[in-house]
Amino acid sequence: KLPPGPPGLPIVGNLLEIPTKQMFLKFDEWAKKYGDLYTVNVAGKKIVVLSSAKSSGDVLDRKSGATSGRPRFVMAGEIMCHNLLYMFMSPGEQWRRLRRVTHEGFNIRACQAYYPFQEQEAANLVRSIMAEPTDLGQKLKHATAAATWRSLYSGPSLTEEDEAKVCGIDNVGETVLGASMPMAFLVDVIPAMKMLPNWMAGWKAWGEEWFRESGRFFHGLLDDGKQQKKGVEHHVGFIASTAPSFKKFGVTEQEAAWTAGGLFIAGVETSGATLHYFIQAMVLNPEVCRAAQKHVDSVVGNRPPTFDDRDQLPYVVAVVKETIRWRPVAALGVPHVADEDLEYRGYVIPKGTQIIGNIWSIAHDPAYFPYPEQFQPSRFIDSSGNIKEPFPNYHDDIVAFGAGRRVCPGRDFANNMLFIDMAYLLWAFDFELARNEMGTSMPDTMKFDDHGLIILPVEFPCVVKPRRNDLGELLGDM
Ligand code: HEM
Questions:
Q1: Which residue in 467, 390, 423 sits closest to 311, CA to CA?
Q2: Where are the domains of the chain?
Q3: ipTM > 0.95?
Q4: Could you name the CATH architecture of 15-85+92-475?
C-alpha cells in the first residue's frame, strides 16, 4: 500500500542506484519520473519521498503530529552526543522542552536582540574581504560563525581566545554532521554493533571520547555565556537572556550546554554556504546584482545598511529568498519518521517509515518557479512591489527550512543574518567572473561539495572590487 517508486533489485532494492554524494540529484530525477510521492527501498528499509509543496505540506505540515519523528542516528546522535543534540532526538518530552527554550531565545521578536551582533559582523566581513579578497567561502563562514557565537554567548566582540573557540566549535560541528551521513559508520547500518565493547570497536571508543571532550567544551562556553551578561550596548545573547527559561522548563546544565552548542553547529555552515551561493548568483547574474545594488544605494546612499532599512528593501529580501530557493543547502532536509500508520492519497505509510521532504525538488518545481535554474528574485515580488508568497495554499514559502514541528528553529535568525550580510556585500562590492588567458572562467553551478546533510558550492574564482573609495571610513567603528 506504499506509494510506488523505482522498482530496484531483489533484496538490495534501490540501494545500488543511490549515490553516496549528491543524493538529492537522484531523488530529483526520480521525482520527475515517479511524481511528488514515491517510495525508495534501501535494502528493505522504505523511504517515502515528498517532492512537491502540496505533498510536503499535506504530510509534514498538516499531519505533523504523526510525522515529526527522526530515524536513529546511532553514531552521531547516540554514541557521539548521548542523545543531547535535539536535531537527532525523537519528539518526546525532552525534545519539546529544548525546542521551547530555543523558541524563547530565537523567536522573531527575540532575534531583534541580536541585530547589533549581526550588523557588526557584517561590517567585519566587509573589512576582511577588503583586506584580502580571497578565500571567500571561509570568510563568509567565519562571519556567520562570529555573529552566531556572539548571539549565543554574548561576547561584546571576538577576542583572539574566542576566535580559537569559534574554530573549535566549528570543527565539532563538521565532525558530528559528517558522522550523521548515511553509511558514514557501519553501526548505522547494523545498530546491534553498538553493543560491541570499546576494545573491539575503536570507532566507538573514539565517539565516546569525542562526547566527553565536546561536553567539556560546551560546558566551558555555557559558563562564559552566563558571565558575559552584557554584549553590545544593552544587548545580551541567548544564554544570558534565556537562563530564567532554562529553570522554568526544567532544562539541566548539560542540556543547556549542548542545546547552545547544537544551535551553533546547525546554524553556521548552513548560513555561510548560503552566502557563498549568493556570491555565485551575483557573479553569474550581473543584471540582478546591479538592480539590487541600485536598490540598496537608493535607500541607504553612502552609509552602511541597517535592519531598519529592511522594509524599504524588498528586492534584497527577494534576493535572500531566491538564494535559498535556488540553492537550498539542506537539499533533502533532515529525515522525518512516521510515528503512526498514515493514510495519504489512498496509500498507507506505516509507522516507522522514513519520510524525506525533498526540498531541492520543491524549490525547483517549474509549476511554481518557472525556469527554476534561473536566478530571478523578481519571482518573489508582486505587481505592487511587495514580497509575495509562492504557495499560499500549501506550504510556508521558505521550504529550505524544512516543515512541520521540526521546522528549523533558527530560520528567523538565519533570515536576518542573510539579509544584513547580503545588503552589506551589495553595498560594498562588485562581484565579477575571474578572467584567465582563455577568457572568463565560469563556475560549474551543478558541482557541489557534499557534506552530508549540507551541500556547499565548490570554491569558484571570482573578482571582488570595492564600490566605494572610502569604504573603511564609511564603516567607521561599526
Ligand atoms: C540558511 C540557513 C539554514 C537552513 C537552510 C536551515 C535548514 C534546516 C532544515 C532543512 C532543518 C530540518 C527541518 C526538518 O526536519 O524538517 C533544520 C533543522 C534545524 N536547524 Fe536549521 N537551517 C538554517 C539555519 C539555522 C540556524 C541559524 C540555526 C540556529 C541558530 C538552526 C538550527 C536548527 C536546529 C536546532 C534544527 C533541528 C530542529 C529539530 O530537529 O527539531 N538552523 N534547519
A1: 423
A2: 15-85+92-475
A3: yes
A4: Orthogonal Bundle (1.10)
